Amino acid sequence: MAEFDAIERDAEVERRYDSGPERLKHLLRTLHRRSGSQVVVLVDEYDKPILDALDQPDIARANREYLRGLYSVIKHCDANVRFCFLTGVSKFSKVSLFSGLNNLDDITLDPTYSSICGYTEGDLERVFAPELPGLDRDRIRDWYNGY
Q1: Is 59 helix (H, G, I), strand (E, B) or coil?
Q2: Cα–Cα distance between 54 and 15 in angstroms, integer?
């Protein structure tokens, strides 16, 4: 909820609701109305609340249900949303968070988008050069599913 607080404060949007889904719906509609442009929604680590509680199944399940309700708002507000970009480590189909969204495109392995998230080979060469000598790059790629 701290993220909603920050967004509402930065955008000068009055907080009218207590629940996350209602707050998101109000933000999307208000920002669209004010700007005259559809909103872009960026969610980093969409699955983190579930993954953080894997050793506590009841909490993980409750988090999943909360997120399902939150993310379903995006579908209900599709007239206000240009697109939504989600990052995470779980496959969409494995966490069943997006049953309300029927227009998801999984670009995880699409070469067209291979360099927009994470590190490229060039990034590794430049940024991590001091760490690379002696490491088996093929083995590292295996650890990261070919990346």
Answers
A1: helix
A2: 32
